[in-house]
Amino acid sequence: MKIHEILTVKYVFLLLVFFEYITQALCLEVIYAINAGGETFTDSFGIKYIRDPLMGKVGTASDYGKQLIIGRINPADQALYQTERYHHSTFGYDIPISEDGKYVMILKFCEVYFNSPNMKVFDVVLNGDHTVVTDLDIFEKVGRGVAYNEYIPFTIQKGKLMYNNEESDILGGKIRVEFIKGYRDNPKINAIAVIKGVIDDVPKLGPIPPEPDEYHGNQEDEEESPIKARHPSGPRTPDPYSIDDSSIMLPVFVAIGAFIPLLFCLCKL
């Protein structure tokens, strides 16, 4: 294969990756999205999250996560997992849905405070009747400073919400998602998005970072020394949405370096 053909293949590959990413983003039919504890924000997929409607009403809005570099996500989406809303009691959001069809609710979480499991544990209930997440311990799932999503598929049909062969009535054209106060600390949420479609239509997070050998400091130390809290509980993961151009070009340079001496020898014959 000639050099220009290799380069062409390379750039076609990059173009296809880019096209797949853009197509996936453009095909998302977003019904509603909330940046819990934060302001209006548009993520790397073009999803616009509105300002938290509970601002000044229920619970506490926190940006404590800004001390961390959140792992497992596109760097452009850091703010979405750095702000959150928590409450010392059960709280929730009302989400307007008017059309029948299949939907996916994406619940975005990140543990930014605790350094060990079994410190924050809670349930999530949909539409008052369906427990869609049980005993969620974010730290136990992914560690500290790492994004974690729950994907909740459900169907709306003739004024009813159906989840796992169970159904409940939709009142006032809205469904409700609630974060239930558990036996360990307070329930919380970083962001919510509802997309019309199925789980395969929804962009997924990158791989989970390897678990570190030990966690640096404890909760009290972090409160006294905020600088330490800037280090997440695991090594930073490569951006899953980017491609290292230099690594792709390396085989091309090696091929060129090997081909030039050979061409010179052939010309001498």
Please, could you describe this protein's structure?
There is one protein chain. The chain is α+β, with helices and mostly antiparallel strands and 269 residues long. It is built from five helices and 15 strands. The protein has helices at residues 3-26, 78-82, 138-142, 219-224, 245-268; strands at 29-35, 41-42, 48-51, 60-62, 84-86, 91-96, 101-110, 121-126, 130-136, 147-157, 160-163, 166-169, 174-184, 188-189, 191-196. It has an eight-stranded mixed sheet. β2 and β3 (48-51) form a beta hairpin. α1 (3-26) packs antiparallel against α5 (245-268). The radius of gyration is 23 Å and the shape is globular.
Largest sheet: 8 strands, mixed
Number of strands: 15
What's the multimeric state? single chain
- Biggest sheet, strands in spatial order? 2-3-1-15-7-10-11-12
Which shape, going by the Cα principal axes? globular
Question: Helical stretch count?
Answer: 5
Low-pLDDT stretches: 9-26, 214-256, 259-269
Write down the overall mean pLDDT: 80
Distance between the termini: 23 Å
Listing every helix as H and every strand as E from the N terminus to the C terminus, the arrangement reads HEEEEHEEEEEHEEEEEEHH
User: What percentage of the residues does DSSP assign to strands (E)?
Assistant: 25-35%
- Class by alpha and beta content: alpha+beta
Give the helix proportion (percent range): 10-25%
| Rg measurement, Å | 23 Å
